[in-house]
Design a protein that fits this description.
Elements lengths: L2 H20 L11 H14 L6 E5 L2 E4 L1 H13 L3 H27 L1 H12 L2 H8 L6 H16 L13 H13 L7 H19 L4 H27 L5 H4 L11 H13 L18 H16 L4 H18 L14 H18 L2 H29 L4 H6 L2 H13 L5 E4 L12 H8 L7 E4 L4 E4 L6 E5 L10 H7 L3 E2 L10 E4 L2 H14 L2 E3 L9 E2 L3 E3 L3 E8 L4 E2 L4 E10 L7 E10 L2 E8 L12 E9 L7 E11 L4 E2 L2 E3 L2 E2 L4 E8 L3
Parallel strand pairs: 3-4, 3-6, 13-22
Antiparallel strand pairs: 1-2, 5-17, 6-8, 7-8, 9-10, 9-22, 11-12, 11-20, 12-14, 14-17, 15-16, 15-18, 18-19, 18-22, 20-21
Helix pairs in contact: 1-4, 1-5, 1-6, 2-3, 3-4, 4-5, 4-6, 4-7, 4-15, 5-15, 7-8, 8-10, 9-14, 13-14, 13-15, 14-15, 18-19
């Protein structure tokens, strides 16, 4: 195969790789899994100016920060949504493939370069890795870059005249070896393999000139300079350092070495990784034909191991294999990530060796077979990636796909249609993040004018009840609402359309019904000023303005007015935003035995008041537990608002004149049994 033909094929394969990695990128993977969420949160920590060698994730787990610095820098331009984070992995993946082609072609010839490239272009795990968010995406790039630089440093290219030593490749080698410590603990093995190969070249082959030795010393000095902060941090924080985490999860009793080796090798060609975040469960990493060609390449490399260009991938494979094999759960494709370029090199070498060993008449038949193998793998990866894998229930669970679907929906609708995010407190998921946090993390339009409410006890009717949509990040939220609030929701339409999960979005327009309800309060919900109010007590007529740009519109109460000690008073109030509201606003409801004595109280707020806009109406459901020791009798109810920052109450205003700091809103009776 000529170089020109191989270049053309490589360009075509890279375009195919771009399609596989970017097709429906915003919808596949269907959301974020917990490890991706962790990497994004570390990147956001970097964005705040906190630069560290190790980021402490808790429970003694550390994480190197170079990937996250890169992620924070690039997403400052691409955007901080799900798509902006994923595009970084796409670019790194394509760059890795291009370097792999260059490496394989220079070591073993153009055909080997094209074959090695093709293997990873249509590989499911490599494609998933290029669509996901995680520091592991840098490992194949780092390994390929180090191999290519070593080949350049020692002049191991298959063809071409040897070039005199120059400082640039040696400096590049030192830079890669130094910076790699800040990427992943597997880099310790990459450095060990590099040192072993350098020793082999210097002592066993004796092909290194004194000038090259000097440049090599310079490259190692560059590595030491860049690695020094890592070393210092490792001595200061040994529990977080990469050396301790390299094989930290592996234990012999849980996974004996012989079993780990067998399962890892079986995962390459037979059983596959069962983790839905890494694979279509039990799908092998490579098909059997590709596996056979890979083994041919490995045998060819071992047979010609005295030549440096064959020995290079062999020594790296031997040194990196423990990290891939000695994993707690084998086979583990994520642990094998650093080996991907080496496996591709052996496959390319196997294809080239077998092709050139055939008579000329048989080569066309093999070429046709290789094209058929490529077509088979392309169909296989396309079917599994776009049809089977994303529809697995386990995949949808680990990637929080419901929230991912809502994020994509809101990216297209939230700017045009007022939106309330309904998030009843629930156990946090995804490294301690709640549903709303995950939703905002996955959205690309971070500035969408969203409102937020705990819809178990609060509801926001925007712009006086005009058309809006209410989003339920949790499928159970709609059914967990207070019945009074759910009656408002039932006036709307539950959307059922492709790309939306079930019971997720309700569209309502209750402007007329809200106006009728508030108008009814004038006759059904009497309100009075407090006895201590200037101008004396007396009837007040809603709406009643408070300080802090909030207006009291009226209230609803349970039909019963007779309670027992230990019972719960449920009180429902309506409020309107008329401007910027203090961010720490609280609403209080007091049960009074006399105007100055509080027998029971609840201070609460069920919305993010900072997200409210003018004419937004808040419906607040308040539960006031009555003490078991409360005496029987008649009790007044008072309500009001205050700023929790300084506990200063908002004044009640009547024609711009303050009339106290609370309103009286009816009575209840308590009868002891």
């Amino acid at each position: 195969m000529s170089s020109r033909t191989s270049y053309a094929l490589a360009v075509g394969l890279l375009l195919l790789a771009a399609v596989l990695r970017m097709w429906t990128l915003s919808a596949l993977p269907p959301g974020l899994h917990d490890e991706e969420i962790t990497d994004i949160r570390v990147a956001e920590t970097v964005r705040q100016g906190i630069i560290e060698v190790f980021y402490d994730l808790g429970d003694g787990e550390g994480r190197e920060g170079l990937y996250h610095i890169l992620l924070a820098a690039i997403t400052s331009f691409t955007g901080r949504g799900l798509l902006g984070y994923q595009i970084v992995s796409v670019w790194v993946s394509l760059l890795t493939l291009a370097l792999l082609y260059a490496l394989a072609a220079r070591l073993f010839g153009p055909l080997a370069g094209v074959a090695a490239l093709a293997l990873l272009v249509v590989n499911l795990w490599t494609t998933l890795l290029g669509r996901s968010i995680g520091r592991e995406i840098l490992l194949p790039l780092l390994a390929t870059g180090i191999l290519l630089t070593l080949a350049r440093v020692f002049g191991m290219f298959r063809h071409g005249r040897p070039r005199p030593p120059a400082t640039t490749p040696f400096a590049a080698l030192g830079l890669l070896l130094g910076l790699g410590f800040y990427v992943h603990p597997v880099h310790f093995l990459l450095v060990l393999a590099s040192m072993a190969f350098i020793v082999y070249m210097v002592r066993a082959r004796r092909r290194v000139s004194r000038r090259a030795l000097g440049y090599l010393g310079f490259g190692l000095l560059v590595m030491i300079i860049f690695a020094t902060p890592y070393l210092i941090s490792s001595l200061r924080l040994p529990q977080l350092s990469g050396a301790g985490r390299l094989l930290g999860d592996y234990t012999i009793p849980q996974n004996p070495p012989l079993r780990a080796i067998g399962e890892s090798l079986g995962g390459l060609f037979f059983s596959g990784d069962s983790d839905p975040a890494h694979n279509l469960p039990n799908r092998p990493l490579f098909d059997l034909v590709s596996g056979a060609l890979l083994l041919v390449g490995l045998l060819a490399a071992l047979r010609n191991g005295r030549q440096p260009r064959y020995f290079l991938p062999v020594i790296f494979t031997l040194v990196l294999s423990p990290a891939a094999i000695l994993s707690l759960n084998t086979p583990d494709f994520q642990a094998m990530t650093g080996l991907l370029p080496l496996l591709a090199l052996f496959f390319g070498l196997g294809v080239s060796t077998l092709y050139h060993s055939l008579p000329a008449a048989s080569r066309r038949l093999m070429a046709a077979g290789l094209l058929a193998l490529l077509a088979f793998n392309l169909f296989w990866v396309g079917r599994d990636l776009f049809q089977f894998w994303p529809n697995l229930e386990a995949v949808q669970t680990v990637y929080h796909s419901r929230i991912g679907q809502l994020a994509r929906y809101l990216d297209t609708t939230a700017d045009d249609l007022p939106t309330l995010i309904c998030d009843t407190p629930a156990p946090a998921s995804g490294r301690g993040l709640g549903s709303t946090d995950l939703l905002l993390l996955m959205m690309n339009r971070k500035q969408a004018p969203l409102r937020y409410a705990d819809c178990g006890t609060g509801l926001v009717l925007m712009d006086g009840g005009a058309r809006q949509q209410i989003v339920f990040a949790d499928a159970q939220m709609l059914h967990g609402m207070h019945p009074y609030l759910r009656r408002w929701i039932e006036r709307g339409i539950l959307l059922d359309q492709p790309g939306l999960p079930a019971s997720a979005v309700v569209e309502i327009n209750v402007e007329r019904e809200l106006a009728d309800t508030i108008g009814r309060f004038i006759t059904t919900a009497p309100v009075g000023y407090a006895p201590e109010a200037p101008g004396a007590s007396g009837a007040a007529t809603a709406p009643i303005r408070f300080g802090g740009n909030i207006t009291f519109l009226g209230y609803e109460r349970e039909p019963t007015e007779m309670y027992v000690p230990g019972g719960i008073l449920t009180f429902i109030t309506y409020w309107r935003a008329d401007g910027p509201i203090p961010p720490n606003l609280r609403l209080f409801t007091h049960v009074l035995s006399d105007p100055a004595s509080i027998a029971a109280q609840t201070d609460t707020i069920s919305v993010n008041v900072g997200s409210l806009r003018n004419r937004d109406v808040l419906i607040q459901v308040t539960f006031v537990p009555l003490p078991a020791s409360i005496p029987g009798g008649i009790y007044n109810i008072s309500i009001g608002a205050y700023d929790a920052t300084n506990n200063v109450r908002m004044g009640v205003l009547d024609d711009e004149q303050q009339r106290g700091t609370r309103l009286f809103v009816g009575q209840i009776s308590v009868a002891r049994r």
